[in-house]
Design goal:
5-stranded antiparallel beta sheet, 7-stranded mixed beta sheet
């Protein structure tokens, strides 16, 4: 263990560190990395690094040597919770637990992979008192630096089961909805409709060009503007793809066919189709929005 003289950022709280020389007996500290042991191609793997301590008084943790992800992986950084720790029981002892790293990994190819271990510096605050000849008794905080090393994790990625005709747009559980934005739609003038694909998982191979097949009865699609967003909902990766479509209705009774995608559900080990409803010229109102999910965090 060693002591440092620097400013520490404690999970969003700024405190000043003052040098000291006395060593103290600190808490039991460990770093644990976890990931699922197996997954399918295109399935989201959740990689989590947790700091465990027998004491809750931890000031900060810093990566000294980062882990290296396999170069074949798509990596999406998740949000961590560094505030109040959770408590867990291990070996008859109570440990305080912080999630210090969360990442989502997606692989396009099957194989066996390993994420090597990382090295960390954990800072423990100690309050001290000293008598000053001018100011009298004063308190200060010294920070003890403790080295901690995580563990390597290994896992395998399997090929998706053989599917029927057509491609697979994603792995997870998805829904598709479509609507017209508020406002009048006039024959011969540019108008807009919106399709939104959302769900738990990753949309790895969404073929946007397929949407042109939906515009074939009394309307012409001019262009599509895709918007992609990832969120963290209840600890899982949530994907949203919004397709803003500009089109020209040629008659008042135009019709836009359902937009569909095919996805594989790892839980049910089956392929499914998700489709929007048919949009017609008489519909110019967005479906009722679902209740806001306060557990969703943009990442």
């Amino acid at each position: 263990m060693k002591f440092i003289n620097k400013t520490i950022l404690l999970f969003g709280l700024l405190t000043a560190a003052i040098s000291a020389s006395a060593k103290t007996t600190g808490p039991e500290i460990s770093i644990e990395a976890t990931i699922e042991k197996s997954a399918y191609v295109g399935e989201v793997l959740e990689y989590t690094v947790t700091l465990l301590s027998t004491e809750a008084n931890i000031a900060n943790v810093k990566i000294v040597k980062n882990n290296t992800f396999p170069r074949e992986a798509k990596v999406i950084n998740g949000a961590t919770r560094n505030g109040r720790p959770q408590t867990v029981q291990k070996g008859g002892k109570t440990y305080y637990s912080w999630t210090i790293q969360k990442d989502y990994l997606i692989f396009d190819n099957p194989g066996k992979y390993t994420i090597d271990k990382a090295e960390y510096a954990v800072y423990i605050p100690h309050t001290k008192a000293v008598r000053d000849n001018f100011w009298g008794m004063r308190q200060y905080v010294e920070y003890e630096e403790v080295a901690a090393t995580g563990n390597a994790v290994s896992f395998k990625v399997e090929q998706l089961p053989k599917k029927g005709e057509g491609s697979c747009d994603g792995v997870g559980d998805f829904t598709v909805e479509g609507w017209f934005p508020p406002g009048a739609i006039n024959v011969g003038s540019e108008a807009y409709c919106i399709f939104k694909i959302s769900g738990e998982g990753y949309l790895s191979d969404l073929n946007i060009s397929e949407i042109y097949k939906c515009f074939k009865e009394n309307c012409q699609l001019k262009e599509v503007e895709p918007e992609e967003e990832f969120k963290q909902r209840n600890g899982m990766l949530w994907s949203e793809v919004t397709l803003v479509c500009k089109f020209i209705p040629q008659k008042a009774d135009f019709k836009i066919e359902p937009f569909c995608l095919k996805f594989f559900s790892p839980d049910k080990k089956s392929y499914y189709d998700a489709c929007s409803d048919t949009l017609e010229g008489s519909q110019q109102k967005k479906p009722e929005r679902k209740t806001r999910d306060n557990n969703a965090v943009s990442i």
